[in-house]
Amino acid sequence: MTPSSENTTDERDYLSADEEIHLMQVFIDEVAIWMDALDKDKHFANVVPYLALRLPMLLNALLACGAKHLALIGRHDGDKADYYYNMASTQLSRSQQERDRDPADCALTAVALDAYHLMSDSPTQRMGRIASTRALIRACGWDATSTGLAAACFWVNVGMEVLSCIAFGWPTAWDPDQWGLDLSFATLEGASRSSGGRSLAESDDVSWPARPPAESHHPAADDSADSADSADLGREELWVQRIFYIMAKVSNFRANTPQFQEPSPHDEQVRLQNRFAEWRRLQNMCNAWNLGCPRSMRPYGYSPGPSPKSLFPNVWLIKSSAKLARLFYHTAMCLLAQVNPLDPRDSRENRASQLHHAHHVCGIVAHTRDRGVVSVAIRSLAVVSAALVDRRERDEVVAVLERIQHETGWKLGRVIQSLRSTWGWEAGGPASSGPGPAGPAGAAARGMGLLAPPLPSGVGLSRLGGR
């Protein structure tokens, strides 16, 4: 017998139905983990479920998300997801028509329903839903300067929009420059000071030593680096948001690539120079972020591979925030190598840079089982994998995407098919050959398509800040 409630308001003391309890647990464990990717305090896992006890439309939205996840992984028929979704959307629509409605409650519920749409709708339908929610968020005055739950809702909304736009080559409707994000880091001079004087030559993942060599030891420089890192402890999500902003800017730059030349050669040259200036500014922002980010957001371990487990490098990052940040950084750098206005994307240096950063994205995803990370990483993995040329690396990416689909329920058939089309082998193609480790381990890895020759040596990546 459950205790009686003395609550005379609409707020529920607790969930009492087994189905509701189970679906809420699924929401917290499987859906909130990627909704909270850009939020330090993980509001959708830690705060929103309690708010749902007093807000029926929000509760139904969360239960719909939990039921939809179970349907995606084949543990539910989907009817319950539709039931809770219809309840939530009807209640939200009714609430929006009330004169004394709470705009924050409506915006929060709309954000939760967008998670359902992300798991259900086509891209164009999804973008329409995100746009409606964006209007509610902007009406509340929420942006990157907000705090608490308001900030959490903002980042879920722009996160869904940016990742969808990256996937389909669309520009974002909410200009990243209007997000209100603190961009004080985005100068090379400021980044150099905050990083203890690191140079661009030391800017890639594994080339910066934790301490200067003994012969160049300088206490003041060490103190500066330690002080900067200490100041950023607990602020890793801010640096994730900063590189996410940069990635959004790069994605918009790619989406706005002119499709036709100007009639006048002079006008075309002016346009090219202007775009190249913007391209260099974005490149400098990537470098500034990489120089200025705290040590906790750089790899703790790095094994270049290949190994029996994966062709790709094992880039070990301890925190989920660090994994996401490096994924966004390498995605932005790979995209930049594709859209240099004055240098063809298939030039030797640009091809090498794309491969370098694609290998790091693939390596981070291939070596992690963090579901919150891999759900967000799908778009980055799909975009950068187009640069891969080795058949066995491509096979491994397909295997990784299939693993993610199996583990998370995301329907990735279109993503895989798009990659196959980009690679030109929908019906399969000849597997490349190359040397691999000798012995049983090497033979087994070759049989699984897990070994490939390393990148060509002597290819410089200095223009894009690569190693």
From TrEMBL:
Chief location of this protein within or outside the cell: nucleus
InterPro entries named in the record: Fun_TF (IPR021858)
GO MF annotation, one: transcription cis-regulatory region binding
Annotated region described as Disordered, given as residue ranges: 192-228, 426-467
Name of one Pfam family that matches: Fungal_trans_2
Keywords: DNA-binding, Nucleus, Transcription, Transcription regulation, Zinc
Entry's localization field: Nucleus
Compositional bias (Low complexity): 428-452
Official protein name in the record: Transcription factor domain-containing protein
Organism: Thermothelomyces thermophilus (strain ATCC 42464 / BCRC 31852 / DSM 1799) (Sporotrichum thermophile)
Species lineage: Eukaryota, Fungi, Dikarya, Ascomycota, Pezizomycotina
